[in-house]
Design goal:
The complex is a heterodimer of chains A (about 280) and B (about 190). With about 280 residues, chain A is of the alpha+beta class. Chain A has 12 helices and 14 strands. In chain A, helix 5 (about 90-100) packs antiparallel against helix 8 (about 125-130). In chain B, helix 3 (about 90-100) crosses helix 6 (about 145-155). Chain B is globular, with a radius of gyration of 19 Å. The chains are: A alpha+beta (about 280), B alpha+beta (about 190).
Amino acid sequence: MIPVAFDYVRATSAEHALALLAEHGDDAKLLAGGHSLLPLMKLRLATPGVLIDVGRLTDLAYVRDAGDQIAIGALTRHRDVETSTILAEHVPLLAHAASHVGDPQVRHRGTIGGSLAHGDPASDLPAVILALGGTLVVQGPAGTREIAATDFFEGFLETALAEGELLTEIRVPKVTGAGWSFQKFNRRAQDWAIVGVAAVHDPAGIGTGIGLVNMDSRPVRAHAAEAAVGSGATSADAAALADADLEPPADLNASVEFRRHLAQVLVRRALEQSGVASHT
Amino acid sequence: MEITVTVNGNAATHDIEPRLLLVHYLRDVVGLKGTNVGCDTSSCGACTVHVDGESAKSCTLLAVQADGCAVTTIEGLAATAGVDVAAGEMHPMQEAFREHHGLQCGYCTPGMVMAAVSLLDENPTPTEREVREGIEGNLCRCTGYHNIVKAVLACAGVLDDTPGPISWPTPVAEPSTPTAPASAEVGA
């Protein structure tokens, strides 16, 4: 499968990428690791006229301790998120989830920023960033702005990134020592999750966060289940609300009803593994 | 546009279309047919090569993304690792695949070997489970993986091949809360 012909330009800095975005407008797409975009282009579901390659902006590839938060450069590869000792200590949920993205070859090339900016409800990392209540830092023509993860994912492959903007950094709160769990239900090792759950339980800190994979047209939180845990519900009672107000898709792998069932089972397991009491 | 890629130690410059995939560049421009195209959807891993020393699926990379990089294919694996190819020697991973019969039809083998070498670069003494997880990006429809896993463990020097009755893989102890549910448990 061959993509439709396009022009290729390589950005040499974030500022250069912004200038190229301004020059080429909505005919352009940003290329990071390319492991979400190139498959779509090969299927000709995406046909950008210009690819702006930001894959060599190595100054946007880092994991840094930023006080109460960890700051991760948007061009940080999944492999480097997976093996980060800073994340292993302070946000192990994110490092662990990154180790379940695709397969080793994909993790050598794919980036956290590319995965989030793609906005795919079937991806693992959006659910993790939602559960953690992370923040996305975006540069654009008007300067830098911060977008809460809960406001970032607007629809199927649609995000709050405006035309001409570049995602530069992801910030997640430190949840050192908090309970967490990542549940990925799939049929084969490298598959997308049929349903996935990212949970963090940090009563003394950020509270309880639950992000869901493939349970709506966009990456979502299980707000009702989170609120139930906050009110003292058991893991089972909270998990019964896992799919409340959500509209999961039906496809070859699962019906709507099966996805609702999976979400409830996986959220219960995730909450128990995170340390939410299973009995009152 | 013009790109310069060092393939198996030989730097060359070519004028290519930006949409040319790395695997087609290697096969049709450079002329190295050892890297196979399998699924062409980044699932099967048959096209795995090393880009700057790390495994990557060359069907999901543009050749322009490898501009300035060092790419190693199955043809150059042994020589770039310092093996005396002129004396008829192979890379230790290739030897291990032959010794342990880690292939049948052979179509997945170039990608499987490249993935396995990259795996041992990152984890020189893996467990059997780590090998099985480490090659999750490579599909083999013939072998059932058993001899491939044996070959990788042997190459790493951690294969226990004591003769005796068949030892089935020990079930992995699940954490107190299951993380990989069997389908039968889902209804629980």
